[in-house]
Amino acid sequence: MDKFTKEERSKIMKTIRSEGSQIETLLMKALWAKGYRYRKHVKSVLGRPDIVFKTLKIAIFCDSEFWHGNDWDTMQKKIKSNVAFWHKKIERNIHRDKEVNAKLISTGWRVLRFWGKNIQKDVLHCVSLIENAIIERKKELYEMSNMDYIRKLSSGKSQIIKDKAFCELLKSRLPDAKNTFTKLFDDFDSIIKKADPSVTKDALNNAHGNWYEWLIAVEAWNCFLNNPPAHLALLLPNVKQFDVSKLYITSLSDLIDDLRNKVAKASSVQLITSNPDFVIFDRQHAKKIIPSIDKIDEITPDNLKKLENAYNNFVGTCAFDNIVGFISVKTSFRPDRRLQIPHEGSLMKALYTHLQTRQWIIDPRGLKYYAIASKVGPADRTALKTVATHSITTVHTLPQAAVDEVFQVNSLNDARSTFKSILSSTR
Length: 427
Hints:
Elements: H1 6-33, E1 39-40, E2 51-53, E3 58-63, H2 65-68, H3 72-75, H4 83-106, E4 110-115, H5 116-121, H6 123-145, E5 150-152, E6 158-160, H7 162-169, H8 181-195, H9 201-226, E7 232-235, H10 250-266, E8 278-281, H11 283-289, H12 301-309, E9 323-330, H13 335-359, E10 368-373, H14 378-383, E11 405-408, H15 412-422
Parallel strand pairs: 3-4, 9-10, 10-11
Antiparallel strand pairs: 1-2, 2-3, 5-6, 7-8, 8-9
């Protein structure tokens, strides 16, 4: 039971609120004397901050020790009357302050909170902290204004222009060979979210996929140049943009079209394939099609386009042995991808075997199919040890793997060692 009457308690509460307004006034006057102009108690900003620099998105709260629970573990023991009421009220305030902070920060606000005692003890120090925040915020806003890799769609959603973002965030340079791609993308995400908090996690993850493929593609390209025995691995577009069978000479691609037509006519099913992320061309054929290539050591939009469009040089040129393998490249092996990758590998090998049979080719070197991800766990390796379906329809050969090998690639160094292995023309 409260030892004070209602009138006495009301008077005490008014005194506490008065102290709160005094600390606000003290800080406001100190800022005003320094030439700073601000808005007070802005209702349109979550939490109704005491001081707001709206253009800079800086919210400042002046918190009294009692109402906002400073050193709550100690202070709560000093409350002797109406304990349950005050504990509940102040703990609710503490929780609400944390919620307000989190929501403001998630929408791009900089939040500063000062205890009343600190303002009273050294208001100029508090002003100094605010000044530092203003300087940092102005610098951030200036940098954001120069970021032209985020566009607003008519729907109001933010879209990352992936190639521009990639080039600008890397400052057109390849990252340190030892640095992990995971850390690199986390850093990129932080910069983008700071520039535009409305960019979604899905949009960032989608960008990661392209960024990862581009880094892998650069190393595959340079491996071909720097290692004379190496084959050439090139990026492929998705199946909606290009049919991978069209890399073969007309007589071979016609055989695959014929197979698709016969499957469709003979039953209610269709031969539907997706494109692997990379195709591996035999070195001799690659040197014939692209006699000379330059090393890629700068990340520019033109170089990214070169990597993405290089496959076009090989359309309609490949004999049976000119394509030696494919690579599936994913930032991670989600459960659905563990099914997609072996299915894709199995189909590519089945089409290869179909061409071998139709052309009556004896003892070919075979087609390889590899999988690459930034993180590979035991469960991933187990799931990808799937048999290639066509290889268990006959007893004349041993069963084949749908995926020949799985590699964890989370840095340029990882990519270099992986490609020295899988692109070796002696494999």
